[in-house]
């Protein structure tokens, strides 16, 4: 084996570590949005107002996903992330400085969607460019673990600020500063990444109607659908934990501490093992854990211990499911369509994580927190049934092959 081949088989090494650091810093801005319900409530608004601001980001993420490929072909993926990362800093500052809860916050919600959409879309594309297909699942898990660390750190910063006597807006200021550091890291990475071997070829990030149709008519449709449903579960629960905590008399920071710790630990320590196993069985088991966690939120949580347990189970289930289906979306796509599948994967995620909070906030205001939890439970059950159906369909196909060789 040549020296170059040995280096590629070992993966990108320190360069990938710097990439993960930049990803962590940019992710703080999105994590801080889980404090919007608390922030807007302090200004006289309610959960529906907060959900509307978060959901405004869904509209701009469509533009980001569709345009990110063309932007990447023009500037390069890393420098595209750096350029639009500035919008993440701007959005965080806007949330902190805008008085009241009017239309100006919706504008900053749109700004957040553009920045987060480009970063979240091109991040996996950069990984797929750097890493050979056989190693992608592992490196996707490392990237998502870094991003989850940043996302979970956002609301924890808000809780720490409150404990120290500072306003919740302090978390948004910190997120803005972190995003600017992340911007500098990705800008510097641009030149270095251009010298690395590209495992996706040229113009890998551009999306087309024909490419999208090809992906959606393949088996990659199912992980793309599942990530959207999982995004509904994650967005619906995470965006309103400040309200849920009050309704159960528990500290909302326990959710983010338990969820983040479990998601990160599972992605960093267990994902490398899980992704080597049967992905269909893994999806079925892990999406089942998500259902269990929601049942706990519905019927069991009445103390800090049970609250933390439910959050940990959700973190393991969601954290590992995401890693598995991200790899499935890339590997089950038709030949030459990996980047198309990853773009559609991101788009589906955004519909769930940004779109569903609008409905979730409305449900809370009109019917209460329990009604939202039952809605989230129904979505999680559908997600689990898809994974169960795929497993059963494959088993039936194998039996037909065995009986009719």
TrEMBL record:
Keywords: Membrane, Transmembrane, Transmembrane helix. Pfam families: MFS_1. SUPFAM superfamilies: MFS general substrate transporter. Residues 15-395 form the Major facilitator superfamily (MFS) profile domain. The chain crosses the membrane at residues 50-69, 81-98, 104-127, 139-158, 164-187, 220-240, 252-275, 282-301, 307-329, 341-360, 372-393. Gene3D superfamilies: MFS general substrate transporter like domains (1.20.1250.20). Signal peptide: none annotated. This is MFS transporter. It comes from Pseudomonas idahonensis.
């Amino acid at each position: 084996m040549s020296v170059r081949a040995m280096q590629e088989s070992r993966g990108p090494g320190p360069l990938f570590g710097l990439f993960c650091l930049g990803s962590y810093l940019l992710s703080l801005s999105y994590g801080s949005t889980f404090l919007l319900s608390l922030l807007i409530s302090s200004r006289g608004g309610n959960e529906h107002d907060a959900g509307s601001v978060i959901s405004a980001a869904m509209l701009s993420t469509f533009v980001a996903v569709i345009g990110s490929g063309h932007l990447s072909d023009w500037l390069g993926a890393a420098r595209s992330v750096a350029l639009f990362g500035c919008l993440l800093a701007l959005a965080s500052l806007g949330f902190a400085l805008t008085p009241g809860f009017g239309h100006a916050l919706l504008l900053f919600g749109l700004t957040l969607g553009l920045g987060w959409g480009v970063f979240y879309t091109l991040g996996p594309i950069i990984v797929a460019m750097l890493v050979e297909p056989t190693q992608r699942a592992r490196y996707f898990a490392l990237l998502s673990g870094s991003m989850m660390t940043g996302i979970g750190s956002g609301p924890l910063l808000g809780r720490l600020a409150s404990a120290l006597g500072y306003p919740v807006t302090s978390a948004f200021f910190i997120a803005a500063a972190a995003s600017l550091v992340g911007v500098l890291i990705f800008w510097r990475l641009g030149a270095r990444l251009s010298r690395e071997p590209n495992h996706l070829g040229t113009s890998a990030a551009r999306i087309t109607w024909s490419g999208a149709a090809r992906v959606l008519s393949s088996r990659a449709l199912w992980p793309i659908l599942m990530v959207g449903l999982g995004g509904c579960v994650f967005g619906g629960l995470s965006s309103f934990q400040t309200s849920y905590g009050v309704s159960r008399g528990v500290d909302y920071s326990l959710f983010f501490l338990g969820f983040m710790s479990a998601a990160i630990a599972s992605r960093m320590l267990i994902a490398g093992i899980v992704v080597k196993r049967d992905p269909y069985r893994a999806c079925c088991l892990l999406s089942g854990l998500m259902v269990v966690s929601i049942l706990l939120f519905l019927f069991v949580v009445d103390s800090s211990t049970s609250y933390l347990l439910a959050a940990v189970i959700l973190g393991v289930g969601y954290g590992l499911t995401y890693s598995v289906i991200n790899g499935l979306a890339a590997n089950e796509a038709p030949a030459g369509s990996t980047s198309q599948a990853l773009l559609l994967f991101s788009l589906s995620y955004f519909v769930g994580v940004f779109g569903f909070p609008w409905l979730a906030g409305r449900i809370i205001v009109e019917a209460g927190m329990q009604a939202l939890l039952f809605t989230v439970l129904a979505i999680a059950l559908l997600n689990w049934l898809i994974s169960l159906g795929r497993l059963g369909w494959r088993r039936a196909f194998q039996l037909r092959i065995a009986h009719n060789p």
